[in-house]
Write a structure and sequence with these properties.
The complex is a heterodimer of chains A (about 300) and B (about 160).
Chain A lengths: L15 H15 L12 E6 L5 H12 L3 E4 L14 H8 L5 E6 L4 H8 L4 E6 L5 H14 L5 E6 L6 H10 L5 E6 L8 H9 L3 E5 L11 E4 L10 H10 L4 H4 L7 E3 L20 H6 L1 H14 L1
Chain B lengths: L1 E2 L6 E2 L5 E7 L4 H7 L10 E8 L5 E8 L5 H10 L4 E6 L2 E7 L5 E3 L20 E5 L2 E4 L5 E3 L9
The chains are: A alpha/beta (about 300), B mainly beta (about 160).
Chain lengths: ~300, ~160
C-alpha cells in the first residue's frame, strides 16, 4: 500500500465527517453538478468474483459518467485465477493496469488484504458476509434525502443475522445522534450478539420487537431485508414467517405519513408489489442513488 | 527440593530456565502447547496444576529448563494467562521477573475462527487481531473471540 493511498473498505474505518462529506458530494452528483471530465484518463479495474447486478453496473455507470474508463476482469473462469493465482498476486498485477480497483469477493476481509498489497486505491464492493460500504452509504443517502440523520427511529426487519447490509448500516448509524434501532426478526435470525454489543457499547438504543405491528407507528424508516429459504428448518416454517413478515399497504396504513420503506434488493415476497406505488416506497430510488454515491466514492479515491 | 506444604507436591527447583507462575488454573498444559514444547522436543518441563496460590484461589505453574522465553512467546502467553508472572533463572538465582501484558495488536498468533475469513485461505496473509475490552477482533473479517471463549483453542 502506498503511503497516501485512499481506500474505502468499511464504514467502521470512517468517521462521521468522512461519511457526511461523501453524502454531500453524492448530492451534488445527483443534482448533475459535474462536468463529466472529473476522471477523464482514469481507469477503474472491476474485479467481481461473485455475481452482481446493481453494484457492478452502478460502479461502471458512475465511472463512465465522470469520464473514466472501465477494465473488467470478466469471468473468473477465463482469468489466471482459474490457474490457481492468489488474490494478492492478481491485485499486485492489476494495480499496474488501473488507477483504482473495486473488488467483490466471497471471503470476508478480502478487500482489506487487497488494499495491503495494492499500489492503487481499493474500494470494497462487498466481501462475503462482511462489509459493503457503498450499499451503506447509499442507504444513508436515501434516508438523508427524506429526513435529518438524527433523533429518528429505524426499524430493521427480516434476516438480521446474516444480512451484511444491515450490519454495515447499523454500525454506520452509531456515528449519528439519537438513532433508535428497532429489530423485527424471526427467532434465530436476530442481530448477532457481538454486533448488538458493539452497537450498545457505542451508545445506541436497540429495541427488540415480536412483530412489526407493535412498532410501525413510531418508525421513521423501515428497512426490509430478504428472508432466505435456506435459513429455515422446513418450507412450512418459511411460508409462515414469510406471511408474517410481509409489508403490505394495510400494514403501512398504521405508519406515520412521513415514514419511508427501504430494501437493499433483490426482493422476493417480503414487500407486496402494491406498495411500490405508495409515496413511502423508496427502494427503487435507493438503488438509483447507487450511481451518485459511487461517483462520490470514485472521485474521492482517484482525485485525492 | 521444594515441598509445597499446602499441596504436598514436590517441585524441583531449576538451575537455568524460566518459571511461569500464576497461570490461570487449568491452562498450564495449554501454555506448554502454545510454546511448542509439548511433543517432539527434548526440553524438560514441569507443570503443576491447581496449586493453592498465596494470593488466594488456585493457579497453574510451569517450569522450563534451559530455556528463556522470547518476546513473541511472552505475547502468546499473555493471551491465555494474562495474570502470569515470569521469572528468568540463571545459576539457580532469579535474575529477572516480569509480568505479561496483552498486546494491543497480535499478528500471526491467533487463527481466526471464521472459516470464511481471507486469512484462512491460501493467501499469504498473516492473521491480525486487536485486543479490546470484550476480547480479540479480527482485523480482516471483524470476527470477535470474546472473553467467554477459550482463546487457547485458536492459538
Amino acid at each position: 500500500m502506498t503511503h497516501d493511498q485512499k481506500n474505502i473498505l468499511s464504514v467502521r474505518d470512517m468517521d462521521r465527517e468522512e461519511i457526511d462529506a461523501l453524502l454531500t458530494a453524492a448530492a451534488k452528483f445527483d443534482q448533475k453538478k459535474f462536468t463529466g471530465h472529473e476522471l477523464e484518463g482514469k481507469i477503474l479495474a472491476v474485479l467481481f468474483f461473485e455475481p452482481s447486478t446493481r453494484t457492478r453496473m452502478s460502479f461502471a455507470s458512475a465511472m463512465m459518467r465522470l469520464g473514466g474508463k472501465i477494465l473488467n476482469l470478466g469471468s473468473v473462469e477465463a482469468s489466471s485465477i482459474a490457474k490457481g493465482e492468489t488474490l494478492s498476486d492478481t491485485i499486485r498485477v492489476i494495480s499496474g493496469y488501473a488507477d483504482a480497483i473495486v473488488l467483490r469477493h466471497p471471503k470476508e476481509g478480502a478487500a482489506r488484504l487487497a488494499s495491503e498489497v495494492a499500489s492503487v486505491p481499493v474500494i470494497n464492493g462487498g466481501d462475503g458476509a462482511g462489509q459493503h460500504p457503498s450499499q451503506t452509504l447509499l442507504d444513508l443517502f436515501t434516508i438523508r434525502k427524506s429526513m435529518k440523520l438524527e433523533n429518528i427511529d429505524i426499524g430493521l426487519q427480516g434476516d438480521l443475522r446474516y444480512g451484511r447490509t444491515v450490519h454495515s448500516l447499523a454500525a454506520a448509524l452509531t456515528k449519528y445522534d439519537d438513532i433508535r434501532l428497532h429489530t423485527i426478526a424471526p427467532e434465530g435470525l436476530d442481530l448477532p450478539s457481538h454486533l448488538k454489543q458493539d452497537l450498545t457499547d457505542a451508545g445506541m438504543e436497540i429495541i427488540v420487537h415480536e412483530n412489526i405491528e407493535e412498532t410501525i407507528p413510531e418508525l421513521d424508516v423501515l428497512y426490509v431485508t430478504r428472508l432466505q429459504r435456506e435459513r429455515f428448518p422446513d418450507p412450512a416454517a418459511f411460508a409462515s414467517f414469510a406471511a408474517t413478515y410481509r409489508v403490505t399497504p394495510e400494514l403501512l396504513e398504521m405508519a406515520k405519513p412521513s415514514m419511508i420503506v427501504l430494501h437493499p434488493l433483490p426482493r422476493v415476497d417480503e414487500i407486496d408489489p402494491a406498495v411500490d406505488k405508495m409515496p413511502c416506497a423508496k427502494y427503487f430510488q435507493q438503488a438509483h442513488y447507487g450511481v451518485p454515491i459511487r461517483m462520490a466514492m470514485l472521485n474521492e479515491v482517484m482525485r485525492s | 527440593m521444594k515441598r509445597s506444604s499446602d499441596e504436598g507436591i514436590v517441585i524441583s527447583p531449576i538451575k537455568n530456565g524460566t518459571v511461569i507462575d500464576h497461570i490461570t488454573p487449568g491452562e498450564g498444559l495449554t501454555v506448554i502447547r502454545i510454546l511448542g514444547i509439548q511433543d517432539g522436543t527434548n526440553v524438560t518441563f514441569t507443570v503443576a496444576t491447581n496449586v493453592v496460590s498465596s494470593r488466594g484461589g488456585r493457579k497453574d505453574m510451569v517450569k522450563i529448563e534451559n530455556r528463556e522465553l522470547v518476546k513473541s512467546e511472552v505475547d502468546k502467553l499473555a493471551l491465555i494467562a494474562p495474570d502470569a508472572k515470569i521469572s528468568i533463572i540463571r545459576d539457580s538465582k532469579v535474575v529477572e521477573k516480569k509480568s505479561v501484558e496483552v498486546p494491543t495488536d497480535i499478528t500471526g498468533v491467533i487463527k481466526c475462527p471464521n472459516p470464511n475469513c481471507i486469512t484462512n485461505t491460501r493467501e499469504p496473509a498473516e492473521s491480525r487481531f486487536t485486543f479490546h475490552s470484550r476480547g480479540f477482533r479480527c482485523c480482516y473479517c471483524d470476527t470477535v473471540i470474546s472473553r467467554e471463549m477459550d482463546i487457547g483453542d485458536y492459538i
